[in-house]
What we know:
Layout: E1 8-13, E2 18-25, E3 28-36, H1 38-42, H2 49-68, E4 75-81, H3 85-102, E5 106-110, H4 111-117, E6 130-135, E7 140-147, E8 150-157, H5 162-172, H6 180-187, E9 207-208, H7 211-224, H8 230-255, E10 260-264, H9 271-283, E11 287-290, H10 301-312, E12 331-332
Parallel strand pairs: 1-4, 4-5, 6-10, 8-9, 8-12, 10-11
Antiparallel strand pairs: 1-2, 2-3, 6-7, 7-8
Helix pairs in contact: 2-3, 4-10, 5-7, 5-8, 6-8, 7-8, 8-9
Amino acid sequence: MSLWFEGSVLGMDTSCDETAAAVVRKGKVLTNVVASQAQLHSQWGGIVPEAAARAHIESLVPVLAAAVEGAVPDAVAVTNRPGLVGALAVGVAAAEALSLAWDVPLIGVHHLEGHILSVLANRDLPPLPHLCLVVSGGHTELIEVLEPCKYRTVAETLDDAAGEAFDKCARLLGLGYPGGAALEALARAGTPGKYKLPVAIRHDPRHFSFSGLKTAAMRLVEAEGASLDAASAALAVQSAIVASLTEKIERALRVSDAATVSLVGGVAANSALRTAVESVARGWGRGFVASRPDLSTDNGAMIAIAGSIRLARGERSTALDVSAQAPIPDCEPLG
Ligand code: KG4
Ligand code: ZN
């Protein structure tokens, strides 16, 4: 059985604040179009679900038109879980209508599976199993990829996601929303070691925790007041998050036969994290792959990739439900 569906797949994602569509054929990304709502939500300092759904309605048709370039794809894949329910519904309704009008198969995709499989864009499947760190605004999970569509959760966050920690600390430092990329840029001018922030829960290999870091960063900002060196504070935040993530990977590698470490999700765009995770992986004699920076944050290509693999297995969806929370299919949860 081929890994890929024979034909082009339109992938759509409206799960959060990006209206995204892409066309992928057998893992090759042909088009990838994203309309970000970051500027819209920055006025409120966070995502307003109702505004997100309305903005998807405005952007979806132009984004779709730019992605399909006038050609009818051979299948449609759409994120239907997890995410903001009103935002998801916009993409799902459009995908169902397109599948009906074009008479092509439809497949509902789990957003995190899209992130996990995004490393397959324009690349052969790296040696299995993978130990995959999914780090985004909504998720922080360490997942063993036994094969595409077969997973096992190794660790997950008890509270905030890594991207959320970046965003909340960025906000404390007066950077806009979402602040992860701005915090990384500011951290480049920081002095290493000037400030130290705690790295959470070293003793539990199954859990990440970032809420303590946000509190510590808040105390630092308050204590330093006007004399705060914001760049060094940004570097301390980034270093603490990177240290906490790599520490869990290292512990997992001690007992895992993963051939490849993979790094995906919006926070995978962070170059300090990419460098640190690659160094841990190589240190343990494992391969390393990361999602392309432009396919790390939310996009339609990753949904088309996951959809293509599920379609190749004969899976099809008809009427799709949307849901705010849902486990990854075929994923053994934390024991
Ligand atoms: O995967 P994504 O686009 O959306 C979710 O599914 O949540 O991830 C967005 C997250 C945001 O928290 C954003 O601040 C973070 O990814 N992010 C970064 C960087 N670029 C995006 N965090 C740290 N460094 C970056 N360069
Ligand atoms: Zn995402």
